[in-house]
Amino acid sequence: MTSKNLAPVGNLPVAGIGDVLQGIRTITECVRDIAKEQTEQTRLRENARVNVEHIHAMRDVLMHHLDRSFDERKENFRQLFERLDGAIQGNNVQMASAVLDSVVKLADASPFKALQDVAATRAALGQKGQEWKF
User: Fold this and answer.
1) What is the pLDDT of residues 73-95, one digit of tens each?
2) pTM higher than 0.70 for the full model?
3) Dist CA 61 CA 55 (whole Å)
4) Which superkingdom does the taxonomy of this entry point to (predicted)?
5) Helix, strand, coil shares of the chain as percentages rounded to 5?
6) For 47-76, how does the pLDDT look when each residue is reduced to its tens digit (9 = 90+)?
């Protein structure tokens, strides 16, 4: 059957079998492209979910470390101020001066510096081919 044997429908021209097949190929390619894009979108959503979970895990580790660091700092400051109170009550100027020096040093020390040390250690341990001697 050729396009000559088909009756036109309305004002539309009659399509030949080759035109119909080309249309089906085009639709098939479009469906295939849509499936590929949906697969890619699914992959991207899954990667995003994994990355968010990783960020949350790292946040939890950081927050736990900070909580412990600041709890330790708080306790250190409490002990130093108790010693300072004892030095003041005992009228021991030399001890009060030493304790105040320790308070200043502790205040200058940052718990974030320890995080840098941990990160550097972790990076060093993660290096492939690195030989460690103990």
Assistant:
1) 889 999 999 999 999 999 999 99
2) no
3) 10
4) Bacteria
5) 80, 0, 20
6) 999 988 988 888 888 788 777 878 888 899
Which of 114, 113, 107 has its CA nearest to residue 77?
Answer: 107
What one-character-per-residue DSSP string does 53-75 give?
A: HHHHHHHHHHHHHHHHHHHHHHH
CA atoms within 13 A on the CB side of 82: 6
Chain position carrying tokens 């469906």: 31
Q: In a 3-state reduction of DSSP, which class is residue 3? A: coil
Tell me what pLDDT residue 117 has. Answer: 66
Element (DSSP H or E) covering residue 107: helix 93-108
